[in-house]
Amino acid sequence: MASLRERKKRQTRQALMDAAAQLFDKQGYETTTVDQIAAAAGVSTRTFFTYFRHKADVLYANSADCLEAGVAELGTRRPGEPPADLLARAFDAMLAESWEMGLVAGLVGDAVKLPIFSPKAAIDRSNTRMERLATALAAACELDRMTAYAMVGAALGAVSATAAVAMSDGKSDEETMTETTRACRRALAGFAQVAPDN
Q: Which end of the chain is least crowded, N or C, by CB within 10 Å?
């Protein structure tokens, strides 16, 4: 069970994320300042920087939780479950946790239009996601590394691209979720014949 201090830290982090979401929605990302986010959350600007390095980091605040949900799901493989089915379940868990690979729900439409704050940070996030998911999939099904990476890459690409198109077409959050889930399964259909070694 989390300590009182740990629970308070989580509450503060969530308050900052909620405040940012409301402000971004009301007045736009560009015009929202860190000072405004902190004030709306009832904390100091200094406290904001305890949790996030930059304003843009709030958009990816749930990324770690999202990734952990997927990795955890990969550890629950059912006897004889095909790797493609297991990976689809992992993506379901990730999308449910924080859909579109870690962007704060409700902010995805705006976030996809933002310039990348740091190309290196974006690449690092992508590489970390790929590595963790592929390693967990390979371990769960005793797949070779190349196959595991190919499967994860196909699913990630399908989800990200479909979400971007759906949002640019003005689809609702629910419609976007449906489309990304469908796209993930279509991408993994080509791996349906991949059999686990255990």
A: N
Instruction: Name residue 28's amino acid.
Output: G
Both tokens of 89, joined, read 């379940």
Q: What is the DSSP string of 64-107?
A: HHHHHHHHHHHTTPPTT--HHHHHHHHHHHHHHHHTTTTPPTTT
Dihedral (Cα; 132, 155, 178, 106), 10-degree rounding? 50
**What value does the mean pLDDT of the chain take?**
83
The token duo for 124 is: 């690092």
Q: What SS3 state is found at 29?
A: coil
Residue type for 119, please? P
CA distance 38 to 60: 17
Average pLDDT rounded to a whole number, residues 64-89: 92
- For residues 60 and 102, the answer to whether their CB atoms sit within 8 Å is yes
Q: What is the CA radius of gyration of the chain?
A: 18
Distance CA 133, CA 189 (A): 18
Q: Is a pLDDT exceeding 50 seen at residue 35? A: yes
SS3 171: coil
